[in-house]
Design brief:
The chain has helices spanning 22-26, 44-58, 66-79, 149-160, 204-212, 224-227, 257-265, and strands spanning 2-5, 8-11, 29-37, 40-41, 85-92, 109-115, 124-128, 165-169, 175-178, 182-187, 190-193, 216-217, 230-235, 238-245, 248-249. The chain is an alpha+beta fold. It starts with a strand and ends with a helix.
């Protein structure tokens, strides 16, 4: 695998990230995961907009413009002779001395990698995590930050209970999202998803479903699951039906018509 790093293409065995990089030391950075089809990164403008918003929030200087990043994505696809794959852009604040406060002279490190599209994981059988909650009061809940430890712990909790996903509550005990996905529930033919103000990440496919398929943002207490006829999870790689939570089926426990339709037209 060849990857792009700060403007150059390297081979996978090349080691270019310093051990005192703030991403490695402190998780200080952002990332975006982008699906590519026919050598085209899908919804790239939405991904780069979210990256810029996160960078502004944490005062991370990206250092290159969106046209340059778009060209870098294309370069990685071409260098690896890939027309369908999963691209990842990782943005670190760069190397550091000890301490939390970054130096104003820090030079950011940017990397773009590509990997095969993973096989479909099948329908989701989830639990409601008790080990981790989304902090909807934190502005970082709106960013794709490098630290995913809370999500990892929640996913491990699900695995220990024989489930393959975990739903995350926020501090008010309302549904927020899943460990790597946005959550949607169909209630009375309305497609509902938790609002960003409840801790939901502003996902790219989430944005498409809100804008083009009539979905609505709504606070979702846990008991909304009992009234839902369908459930599904979305991230940049696609849509996954949610059929069961804490041992209880969603609707009749099968993939519903709205979920099936969205899976056929997205991403």
């Amino acid at each position: 695998m060849k990857f792009w790093f700060n403007g150059e293409i390297f081979d996978s065995e090349d080691k270019v990230i310093a051990v005192n990089d703030r991403a490695f030391m402190l998780g200080d950075g952002l990332f975006e995961t982008v699906l590519a089809r026919d050598s085209v990164p899908l919804r790239l403008s939405a991904h780069l907009q979210r990256l810029r918003q996160g960078a502004e929030l944490i005062e991370l200087q990206i250092g290159v413009n969106n046209d340059q990043l778009s060209a870098a994505f294309a370069l990685v696809l071409d260098a690896n002779k890939v027309n369908k794959g999963v691209l990842r852009l990782t943005a670190s604040r760069g190397t550091c001395e000890r301490g939390l406060l970054p130096s104003p002279q820090n030079e950011p490190c940017l990397a773009i990698t590509v990997a095969p599209v993973p096989p479909f994981k099948g329908e989701a059988n989830a639990i409601i995590a008790t080990s981790f909650r989304r902090d909807e009061l934190s502005p970082l809940s709106r960013c794709k930050t490098l630290s995913y430890l809370g999500n990892i712990v929640a996913r491990q909790e699900a695995e220990s209970q024989g489930a393959n996903e975990a739903l995350l509550l926020n501090t008010q005990k309302r549904l927020a999202e899943a460990t790597i996905s946005n959550l949607f529930l169909v209630v009375g033919n309305r497609i509902l998803t938790p609002p960003v103000t409840d801790g939901a990440l502003p996902g790219t496919i989430r944005g498409v479903i809100l804008a083009e398929f009539g979905a609505e943002e709504k606070e979702l207490p846990v008991n909304t699951l009992d009234r839902a006829s369908e459930g599904f999870l979305t991230n940049s790689l696609g849509i996954r039906p949610l059929l069961q939570v804490d041992g209880k089926t969603i609707g009749n426990g099968t993939i519903g018509p709205i979920t099936s339709h969205l899976m056929s037209v997205l991403p």
